Protein backbone atom coordinates (compact mmCIF):
# COMPACT_ATOMS: atom_id res chain seq x y z
CA UNK A 1 0.00 0.00 0.00
CA UNK A 2 1.37 3.40 -1.07
CA UNK A 3 2.12 5.80 1.74
CA UNK A 4 0.40 9.18 1.50
CA UNK A 5 2.69 12.10 2.24
CA UNK A 6 1.06 14.89 4.19
CA UNK A 7 2.62 18.25 3.41
CA UNK A 8 3.53 20.10 6.52
CA UNK A 9 1.81 23.47 6.88
CA UNK A 10 4.19 26.39 6.98
CA UNK A 11 3.13 28.30 10.09
CA UNK A 12 4.91 31.43 8.93
CA UNK A 13 3.08 31.39 5.60
CA UNK A 14 -0.23 30.76 7.35
CA UNK A 15 0.44 33.62 9.73
CA UNK A 16 1.18 36.15 6.96
CA UNK A 17 -1.69 34.87 4.83
CA UNK A 18 -4.14 35.34 7.67
CA UNK A 19 -2.73 38.78 8.35
CA UNK A 20 -3.11 39.80 4.69
CA UNK A 21 -6.69 38.48 4.62
CA UNK A 22 -7.56 40.38 7.81
CA UNK A 23 -6.02 43.64 6.56
CA UNK A 24 -7.79 43.31 3.20
CA UNK A 25 -11.12 42.65 4.92
CA UNK A 26 -10.68 45.63 7.27
CA UNK A 27 -9.72 47.98 4.41
CA UNK A 28 -12.71 46.88 2.32
CA UNK A 29 -14.99 47.34 5.34
CA UNK A 30 -13.59 50.84 5.96
CA UNK A 31 -14.12 51.80 2.31
CA UNK A 32 -17.70 50.48 2.36
CA UNK A 33 -18.52 52.35 5.60
CA UNK A 34 -16.78 55.52 4.35
CA UNK A 35 -18.76 55.49 1.10
CA UNK A 36 -21.97 54.85 3.01
CA UNK A 37 -21.27 57.82 5.30
CA UNK A 38 -20.46 60.09 2.36
CA UNK A 39 -23.79 59.14 0.84
CA UNK A 40 -25.65 60.58 3.83
CA UNK A 41 -26.92 64.15 3.36
CA UNK A 42 -25.93 65.00 6.94
CA UNK A 43 -22.27 64.18 6.26
CA UNK A 44 -22.10 65.37 2.65
CA UNK A 45 -23.43 68.81 3.53
CA UNK A 46 -20.78 69.25 6.24
CA UNK A 47 -17.78 67.84 4.39
CA UNK A 48 -17.26 70.11 1.39
CA UNK A 49 -14.13 70.33 -0.73
CA UNK A 50 -14.71 73.25 -3.06
CA UNK A 51 -11.71 73.65 -5.37
CA UNK A 52 -13.39 76.06 -7.80
CA UNK A 53 -11.65 79.41 -8.26
CA UNK A 54 -14.45 81.59 -6.87
CA UNK A 55 -15.86 78.97 -4.44
CA UNK A 56 -19.02 78.43 -6.47
CA UNK A 57 -20.36 75.72 -4.18
CA UNK A 58 -19.56 77.04 -0.71
CA UNK A 59 -20.13 80.10 1.45
CA UNK A 60 -17.53 82.86 1.55
CA UNK A 61 -15.70 83.82 4.74
CA UNK A 62 -17.72 87.05 4.76
CA UNK A 63 -21.01 85.16 5.02
CA UNK A 64 -19.64 82.63 7.50
CA UNK A 65 -18.44 85.39 9.82
CA UNK A 66 -21.84 87.10 9.51
CA UNK A 67 -23.94 84.10 10.53
CA UNK A 68 -21.76 82.00 12.82
CA UNK A 69 -22.55 84.09 15.90
CA UNK A 70 -26.19 84.93 15.12
CA UNK A 71 -28.21 85.45 18.28
CA UNK A 72 -31.55 85.75 16.47
CA UNK A 73 -33.65 83.20 14.61
CA UNK A 74 -34.04 83.87 10.88
CA UNK A 75 -36.60 82.21 8.65
CA UNK A 76 -36.38 81.94 4.87
CA UNK A 77 -39.93 81.53 3.60
CA UNK A 78 -40.41 80.22 0.06
CA UNK A 79 -43.97 80.58 -1.20
CA UNK A 80 -44.37 77.26 -2.99
CA UNK A 81 -44.51 73.55 -2.21
CA UNK A 82 -41.11 72.01 -1.54
CA UNK A 83 -41.61 69.38 -4.24
CA UNK A 84 -42.04 72.16 -6.81
CA UNK A 85 -38.85 73.95 -5.79
CA UNK A 86 -36.50 72.12 -8.13
CA UNK A 87 -35.78 71.63 -11.77
CA UNK A 88 -33.19 74.23 -12.77
CA UNK A 89 -29.66 75.21 -11.78
CA UNK A 90 -30.62 78.43 -9.98
CA UNK A 91 -33.30 76.79 -7.84
CA UNK A 92 -31.03 73.85 -7.00
CA UNK A 93 -28.26 76.29 -6.06
CA UNK A 94 -30.65 78.18 -3.75
CA UNK A 95 -31.68 74.96 -2.01
CA UNK A 96 -28.04 73.94 -1.58
CA UNK A 97 -26.89 77.29 -0.21
CA UNK A 98 -29.81 77.44 2.25
CA UNK A 99 -28.61 74.12 3.69
CA UNK A 100 -25.19 75.68 4.24
CA UNK A 101 -26.72 78.70 5.97
CA UNK A 102 -28.59 76.36 8.32
CA UNK A 103 -25.46 74.38 9.15
CA UNK A 104 -23.11 77.36 9.55
CA UNK A 105 -25.60 79.22 11.76
CA UNK A 106 -26.05 76.21 14.05
CA UNK A 107 -29.70 75.96 13.09
CA UNK A 108 -30.51 79.66 13.56
CA UNK A 109 -31.40 80.07 9.86
CA UNK A 110 -34.25 77.79 8.81
CA UNK A 111 -36.17 77.34 5.57
CA UNK A 112 -39.94 76.96 5.36
CA UNK A 113 -42.04 76.20 2.28
CA UNK A 114 -45.62 77.50 2.21
CA UNK A 115 -48.15 76.61 -0.48
CA UNK A 116 -50.25 79.78 -0.74
CA UNK A 117 -52.78 77.96 -2.89
CA UNK A 118 -53.61 75.71 0.04
CA UNK A 119 -53.21 78.58 2.53
CA UNK A 120 -54.36 81.70 0.61
CA UNK A 121 -54.45 83.98 3.68
CA UNK A 122 -50.84 83.27 4.73
CA UNK A 123 -49.31 86.35 3.06
CA UNK A 124 -51.84 88.76 4.56
CA UNK A 125 -51.76 86.99 7.92
CA UNK A 126 -48.00 86.66 8.48
CA UNK A 127 -46.03 88.70 5.97
CA UNK A 128 -47.81 91.60 4.32
CA UNK A 129 -51.06 92.71 6.01
CA UNK A 130 -51.22 95.86 3.84
CA UNK A 131 -50.66 93.88 0.61
CA UNK A 132 -48.00 96.29 -0.68
CA UNK A 133 -44.99 93.98 -1.21
CA UNK A 134 -46.30 92.25 -4.32
CA UNK A 135 -45.73 88.78 -2.89
CA UNK A 136 -46.96 85.89 -5.00
CA UNK A 137 -46.33 82.23 -5.75
CA UNK A 138 -42.55 81.45 -5.79
CA UNK A 139 -41.63 84.64 -3.89
CA UNK A 140 -38.77 84.34 -1.39
CA UNK A 141 -38.88 86.22 1.91
CA UNK A 142 -36.26 86.49 4.67
CA UNK A 143 -37.85 87.20 8.06
CA UNK A 144 -36.58 87.91 11.57
CA UNK A 145 -39.19 88.94 14.10
CA UNK A 146 -41.27 91.62 12.39
CA UNK A 147 -38.55 92.64 9.91
CA UNK A 148 -38.94 91.30 6.38
CA UNK A 149 -36.78 91.41 3.26
CA UNK A 150 -38.07 90.24 -0.12
CA UNK A 151 -35.56 88.65 -2.51
CA UNK A 152 -36.41 89.08 -6.19
CA UNK A 153 -35.22 87.15 -9.22
CA UNK A 154 -32.96 90.07 -10.20
CA UNK A 155 -31.28 89.82 -6.78
CA UNK A 156 -30.27 86.22 -7.50
CA UNK A 157 -28.99 86.27 -11.09
CA UNK A 158 -26.74 88.68 -12.97
CA UNK A 159 -27.43 89.04 -16.68
CA UNK A 160 -25.20 89.88 -19.62
CA UNK A 161 -26.83 92.38 -21.99
CA UNK A 162 -23.93 92.63 -24.44
CA UNK A 163 -25.93 90.81 -27.13
CA UNK A 164 -29.50 91.42 -28.27
CA UNK A 165 -30.80 89.03 -25.61
CA UNK A 166 -30.13 88.81 -21.88
CA UNK A 167 -28.15 85.76 -20.78
CA UNK A 168 -27.42 84.69 -17.19
CA UNK A 169 -23.74 85.37 -16.52
CA UNK A 170 -23.34 85.01 -12.74
CA UNK A 171 -25.17 84.01 -9.58
CA UNK A 172 -25.71 86.51 -6.76
CA UNK A 173 -27.54 84.06 -4.46
CA UNK A 174 -25.11 84.28 -1.55
CA UNK A 175 -24.91 88.07 -1.78
CA UNK A 176 -28.71 88.34 -1.77
CA UNK A 177 -29.26 86.09 1.23
CA UNK A 178 -26.34 87.41 3.30
CA UNK A 179 -27.42 91.00 2.77
CA UNK A 180 -31.04 90.14 3.59
CA UNK A 181 -29.97 88.32 6.76
CA UNK A 182 -27.84 91.28 7.84
CA UNK A 183 -30.70 93.67 7.12
CA UNK A 184 -33.42 91.82 9.06
CA UNK A 185 -31.17 91.08 12.05
CA UNK A 186 -29.87 94.65 12.40
CA UNK A 187 -31.30 96.70 15.24
CA UNK A 188 -31.25 99.95 13.24
CA UNK A 189 -31.43 100.65 9.49
CA UNK A 190 -29.53 103.88 8.71
CA UNK A 191 -30.76 105.98 5.78
CA UNK A 192 -28.42 107.39 3.12
CA UNK A 193 -29.80 110.09 0.84
CA UNK A 194 -28.56 110.75 -2.70
CA UNK A 195 -29.05 114.47 -3.33
CA UNK A 196 -30.88 115.57 -6.50
CA UNK A 197 -31.61 118.89 -8.17
CA UNK A 198 -28.17 119.92 -9.47
CA UNK A 199 -27.79 117.74 -12.55
CA UNK A 200 -26.46 114.80 -10.54
CA UNK A 201 -25.96 111.48 -12.32
CA UNK A 202 -28.79 108.95 -11.92
CA UNK A 203 -28.24 106.39 -9.19
CA UNK A 204 -30.36 103.68 -10.82
CA UNK A 205 -28.89 104.19 -14.30
CA UNK A 206 -25.21 104.71 -13.49
CA UNK A 207 -24.58 103.50 -9.93
CA UNK A 208 -26.89 100.51 -9.49
CA UNK A 209 -24.05 98.33 -8.13
CA UNK A 210 -23.22 100.96 -5.52
CA UNK A 211 -26.87 101.24 -4.51
CA UNK A 212 -27.45 97.47 -4.29
CA UNK A 213 -24.29 96.96 -2.24
CA UNK A 214 -25.29 99.72 0.16
CA UNK A 215 -28.71 98.09 0.55
CA UNK A 216 -26.92 94.78 1.10
CA UNK A 217 -25.05 96.41 3.97
CA UNK A 218 -28.24 97.48 5.74
CA UNK A 219 -28.56 101.01 4.37
CA UNK A 220 -31.92 102.35 3.30
CA UNK A 221 -31.10 104.27 0.10
CA UNK A 222 -33.36 107.18 -0.93
CA UNK A 223 -33.21 110.34 -3.03
CA UNK A 224 -33.57 113.81 -1.54
CA UNK A 225 -33.98 117.39 -2.76
CA UNK A 226 -32.47 120.02 -0.47
CA UNK A 227 -35.47 122.33 -0.76
CA UNK A 228 -36.40 121.46 2.82
CA UNK A 229 -34.63 120.35 5.98
CA UNK A 230 -32.61 117.13 5.77
CA UNK A 231 -34.47 114.41 7.74
CA UNK A 232 -33.16 113.48 11.18
CA UNK A 233 -32.80 109.82 10.15
CA UNK A 234 -30.09 110.67 7.58
CA UNK A 235 -26.87 108.77 8.31
CA UNK A 236 -25.21 110.60 5.40
CA UNK A 237 -25.97 112.50 2.20
CA UNK A 238 -24.14 111.80 -1.05
CA UNK A 239 -23.62 114.14 -4.01
CA UNK A 240 -23.01 112.28 -7.30
CA UNK A 241 -21.30 114.68 -9.69
CA UNK A 242 -23.52 117.78 -9.38
CA UNK A 243 -23.21 120.14 -12.37
CA UNK A 244 -24.59 123.30 -10.75
CA UNK A 245 -24.04 125.05 -7.44
CA UNK A 246 -26.18 124.87 -4.32
CA UNK A 247 -28.88 127.51 -4.00
CA UNK A 248 -28.72 129.76 -0.94
CA UNK A 249 -31.54 127.97 0.91
CA UNK A 250 -30.09 124.56 -0.01
CA UNK A 251 -26.76 125.60 1.46
CA UNK A 252 -28.51 126.70 4.66
CA UNK A 253 -30.31 123.34 4.93
CA UNK A 254 -27.06 121.43 4.36
CA UNK A 255 -25.14 123.51 6.93
CA UNK A 256 -27.93 123.09 9.48
CA UNK A 257 -27.69 119.32 8.99
CA UNK A 258 -23.90 119.35 9.35
CA UNK A 259 -23.99 121.49 12.49
CA UNK A 260 -26.10 118.78 14.09
CA UNK A 261 -23.39 116.19 13.31
CA UNK A 262 -24.48 115.24 9.80
CA UNK A 263 -22.04 113.62 7.36
CA UNK A 264 -21.65 113.98 3.59
CA UNK A 265 -19.78 112.44 0.66
CA UNK A 266 -19.02 114.64 -2.36
CA UNK A 267 -18.04 112.86 -5.61
CA UNK A 268 -17.23 115.78 -7.92
CA UNK A 269 -16.40 115.28 -11.60
CA UNK A 270 -14.39 117.63 -13.81
CA UNK A 271 -16.39 120.84 -14.26
CA UNK A 272 -17.90 121.26 -17.73
CA UNK A 273 -18.36 125.04 -17.51
CA UNK A 274 -16.46 127.99 -16.11
CA UNK A 275 -19.37 128.91 -13.82
CA UNK A 276 -18.09 129.22 -10.23
CA UNK A 277 -19.62 127.24 -7.37
CA UNK A 278 -19.13 129.52 -4.34
CA UNK A 279 -21.66 127.74 -2.11
CA UNK A 280 -20.03 124.33 -2.54
CA UNK A 281 -16.65 126.02 -2.03
CA UNK A 282 -17.87 127.56 1.24
CA UNK A 283 -18.99 124.15 2.51
CA UNK A 284 -15.59 122.63 1.70
CA UNK A 285 -13.72 125.57 3.24
CA UNK A 286 -15.59 125.00 6.52
CA UNK A 287 -13.78 121.64 6.64
CA UNK A 288 -10.42 123.09 5.49
CA UNK A 289 -10.75 121.52 2.04
CA UNK A 290 -10.89 122.96 -1.48
CA UNK A 291 -12.03 121.57 -4.82
CA UNK A 292 -9.83 122.62 -7.75
CA UNK A 293 -11.20 123.46 -11.19
CA UNK A 294 -8.60 121.48 -13.10
CA UNK A 295 -7.97 118.31 -15.09
CA UNK A 296 -5.31 115.87 -13.87
CA UNK A 297 -3.14 113.58 -16.00
CA UNK A 298 -0.79 110.89 -14.69
CA UNK A 299 2.71 110.66 -16.22
CA UNK A 300 4.06 107.59 -14.42
CA UNK A 301 3.15 104.52 -16.47
CA UNK A 302 2.90 102.45 -13.29
CA UNK A 303 -0.01 104.61 -12.15
CA UNK A 304 -2.26 104.89 -15.20
CA UNK A 305 -4.19 102.49 -17.42
CA UNK A 306 -3.62 102.84 -21.20
CA UNK A 307 -4.23 106.61 -21.22
CA UNK A 308 -2.81 109.37 -19.02
CA UNK A 309 -6.31 110.34 -17.88
CA UNK A 310 -7.22 106.90 -16.42
CA UNK A 311 -5.41 107.25 -13.12
CA UNK A 312 -4.57 104.47 -10.68
CA UNK A 313 -4.44 106.49 -7.45
CA UNK A 314 -2.03 105.74 -4.65
CA UNK A 315 -3.95 105.24 -1.37
CA UNK A 316 -2.81 107.04 1.77
CA UNK A 317 -2.87 105.59 5.26
CA UNK A 318 -5.95 106.98 6.98
CA UNK A 319 -9.03 105.97 8.96
CA UNK A 320 -10.73 104.70 5.79
CA UNK A 321 -7.95 102.63 4.19
CA UNK A 322 -6.84 101.01 7.47
CA UNK A 323 -10.12 99.08 7.53
CA UNK A 324 -9.66 97.82 3.96
CA UNK A 325 -7.84 94.70 2.83
CA UNK A 326 -4.62 95.80 1.02
CA UNK A 327 -5.85 93.88 -2.04
CA UNK A 328 -8.97 96.08 -2.11
CA UNK A 329 -7.17 99.41 -2.56
CA UNK A 330 -6.66 99.18 -6.34
CA UNK A 331 -9.07 101.34 -8.39
CA UNK A 332 -9.24 103.25 -11.69
CA UNK A 333 -10.24 106.94 -11.72
CA UNK A 334 -10.85 108.27 -15.25
CA UNK A 335 -11.01 112.05 -15.78
CA UNK A 336 -10.12 113.46 -12.37
CA UNK A 337 -9.91 116.85 -10.77
CA UNK A 338 -7.77 117.49 -7.72
CA UNK A 339 -8.63 118.57 -4.20
CA UNK A 340 -6.54 120.45 -1.64
CA UNK A 341 -6.17 120.51 2.12
CA UNK A 342 -6.04 124.13 3.31
CA UNK A 343 -3.24 125.00 5.69
CA UNK A 344 -5.46 126.47 8.38
CA UNK A 345 -4.51 126.27 12.05
CA UNK A 346 -7.87 125.15 13.37
CA UNK A 347 -7.59 122.67 16.21
CA UNK A 348 -11.20 121.53 15.84
CA UNK A 349 -10.63 120.26 12.28
CA UNK A 350 -8.85 117.01 11.46
CA UNK A 351 -8.01 116.40 7.79
CA UNK A 352 -6.57 113.28 6.13
CA UNK A 353 -5.47 112.67 2.52
CA UNK A 354 -7.38 109.78 0.94
CA UNK A 355 -5.47 109.07 -2.28
CA UNK A 356 -3.10 110.89 -4.60
CA UNK A 357 -1.13 110.87 -7.85
CA UNK A 358 2.61 110.42 -8.43
CA UNK A 359 5.17 113.21 -8.71
CA UNK A 360 5.11 112.78 -12.52
CA UNK A 361 1.48 113.89 -12.82
CA UNK A 362 0.36 117.31 -14.00
CA UNK A 363 -2.84 119.33 -13.97
CA UNK A 364 -4.33 121.98 -16.25
CA UNK A 365 -6.39 124.78 -14.74
CA UNK A 366 -9.58 124.91 -16.80
CA UNK A 367 -9.98 128.67 -16.30
CA UNK A 368 -6.42 129.87 -16.97
CA UNK A 369 -4.87 126.87 -18.81
CA UNK A 370 -2.03 127.11 -16.30
CA UNK A 371 -0.02 123.89 -15.85
CA UNK A 372 1.00 122.57 -12.44
CA UNK A 373 3.20 119.61 -11.50
CA UNK A 374 2.18 116.85 -9.06
CA UNK A 375 1.70 115.07 -6.85
CA UNK A 376 -1.97 115.97 -6.37
CA UNK A 377 -4.61 114.84 -3.93
CA UNK A 378 -7.60 113.20 -5.62
CA UNK A 379 -9.55 112.76 -2.40
CA UNK A 380 -9.49 113.89 1.23
CA UNK A 381 -11.32 113.35 4.51
CA UNK A 382 -12.19 115.94 7.12
CA UNK A 383 -13.78 116.01 10.58
CA UNK A 384 -15.31 119.13 12.09
CA UNK A 385 -14.97 118.35 15.78
CA UNK A 386 -17.40 120.24 18.00
CA UNK A 387 -20.15 119.16 20.40
CA UNK A 388 -21.33 116.91 17.54
CA UNK A 389 -18.62 115.79 15.13
CA UNK A 390 -19.42 116.08 11.42
CA UNK A 391 -17.39 114.26 8.75
CA UNK A 392 -17.09 114.72 5.00
CA UNK A 393 -15.25 113.00 2.15
CA UNK A 394 -14.35 115.07 -0.92
CA UNK A 395 -13.27 113.13 -4.03
CA UNK A 396 -12.55 114.63 -7.45
CA UNK A 397 -14.22 111.80 -9.37
CA UNK A 398 -17.46 109.80 -9.42
CA UNK A 399 -16.74 107.42 -12.30
CA UNK A 400 -14.63 105.08 -10.15
CA UNK A 401 -17.82 103.80 -8.45
CA UNK A 402 -19.97 103.72 -11.59
CA UNK A 403 -21.30 100.45 -12.99
CA UNK A 404 -18.94 100.78 -15.98
CA UNK A 405 -15.81 100.41 -13.86
CA UNK A 406 -16.91 98.03 -11.11
CA UNK A 407 -16.16 94.75 -12.89
CA UNK A 408 -12.63 95.86 -13.81
CA UNK A 409 -11.64 96.38 -10.16
CA UNK A 410 -13.76 93.73 -8.40
CA UNK A 411 -15.98 96.42 -6.81
CA UNK A 412 -13.04 97.99 -4.98
CA UNK A 413 -14.47 101.48 -5.53
CA UNK A 414 -17.60 100.48 -3.64
CA UNK A 415 -15.41 99.17 -0.83
CA UNK A 416 -14.00 102.69 -0.43
CA UNK A 417 -17.49 104.20 -0.19
CA UNK A 418 -18.63 101.59 2.35
CA UNK A 419 -15.48 102.12 4.38
CA UNK A 420 -16.10 105.88 4.32
CA UNK A 421 -19.67 105.33 5.55
CA UNK A 422 -18.40 102.99 8.25
CA UNK A 423 -15.81 105.61 9.29
CA UNK A 424 -18.55 108.21 9.51
CA UNK A 425 -20.59 105.94 11.78
CA UNK A 426 -17.60 104.47 13.62
CA UNK A 427 -18.32 101.00 12.21
CA UNK A 428 -15.89 98.48 10.72
CA UNK A 429 -18.03 95.71 9.23
CA UNK A 430 -19.39 95.48 5.70
CA UNK A 431 -20.73 92.65 3.54
CA UNK A 432 -19.32 92.42 0.03
CA UNK A 433 -19.88 89.06 -1.66
CA UNK A 434 -18.87 89.05 -5.35
CA UNK A 435 -21.21 87.42 -7.86
CA UNK A 436 -20.12 83.90 -8.83
CA UNK A 437 -19.57 83.56 -12.55
CA UNK A 438 -21.41 80.87 -14.50
CA UNK A 439 -18.62 80.77 -17.10
CA UNK A 440 -16.49 77.64 -17.07
CA UNK A 441 -12.76 78.30 -17.15
CA UNK A 442 -10.82 75.66 -19.11
CA UNK A 443 -7.52 74.33 -17.82
CA UNK A 444 -4.84 75.64 -20.17
CA UNK A 445 -1.69 73.53 -20.41
CA UNK A 446 1.45 74.00 -22.45
CA UNK A 447 2.66 71.33 -24.88
CA UNK A 448 5.32 70.16 -22.42
CA UNK A 449 2.80 69.95 -19.56
CA UNK A 450 0.38 67.93 -21.72
CA UNK A 451 3.21 65.56 -22.72
CA UNK A 452 4.30 65.05 -19.10
CA UNK A 453 0.68 64.42 -18.03
CA UNK A 454 0.21 61.90 -20.87
CA UNK A 455 3.40 59.97 -20.04
CA UNK A 456 2.64 60.02 -16.30
CA UNK A 457 -0.95 58.78 -16.61
CA UNK A 458 -0.39 56.36 -19.50
CA UNK A 459 2.91 54.75 -18.49
CA UNK A 460 4.50 55.88 -15.22
CA UNK A 461 1.47 55.42 -12.95
CA UNK A 462 0.43 52.02 -14.41
CA UNK A 463 4.04 50.76 -14.17
CA UNK A 464 4.25 51.89 -10.55
CA UNK A 465 1.06 49.98 -9.73
CA UNK A 466 2.29 46.88 -11.59
CA UNK A 467 5.68 47.16 -9.86
CA UNK A 468 4.07 47.39 -6.43
CA UNK A 469 1.94 44.32 -7.23
CA UNK A 470 4.97 42.31 -8.41
CA UNK A 471 6.91 43.28 -5.29
CA UNK A 472 4.13 42.03 -3.01
CA UNK A 473 3.66 38.83 -5.07
CA UNK A 474 7.40 37.96 -5.09
CA UNK A 475 7.71 38.74 -1.39
CA UNK A 476 4.77 36.53 -0.48
CA UNK A 477 6.03 33.73 -2.75
CA UNK A 478 9.25 33.49 -0.75
CA UNK A 479 7.62 33.51 2.66
List the helices and strands and how they pair.
Elements: H1 11-38, H2 41-44, H3 61-67, E1 74-78, H4 89-104, E2 109-113, H5 122-127, E3 140-144, E4 147-151, H6 153-156, E5 157-160, E6 167-171, H7 173-185, E7 191-196, H8 203-206, H9 208-216, E8 220-225, E9 234-240, H10 248-259, E10 264-267, H11 278-286, E11 289-291, E12 294-297, E13 310-311, E14 314-315, E15 333-334, E16 339-341, E17 349-356, E18 362-365, E19 371-373, E20 377-384, E21 390-395, H12 403-406, H13 412-424, E22 436-437, H14 447-477
Parallel strand pairs: 1-2, 7-8, 7-9, 9-10, 10-21
Antiparallel strand pairs: 1-3, 3-4, 5-6, 6-22, 11-16, 12-18, 13-15, 14-17, 17-20, 18-19, 20-21
Tell me about this structure:
The protein is of the alpha+beta class and 479 residues long. The protein folds into 2 domains: 61-155, 3-Layer(aba) Sandwich (Glutaredoxin), CATH 3.40.30; 189-436, Rossmann fold, CATH 3.40.50. The protein is built from 14 helices and 22 strands. The strands form 6 sheets. Strands 8-7-9-10-21-20-17-14 form an 8-stranded mixed β-sheet. The longest helix is centred in the C-terminal third of the chain and has 31 residues, at 447-477. It is globular, with a radius of gyration of 32 Å. The relative contact order is 0.09.
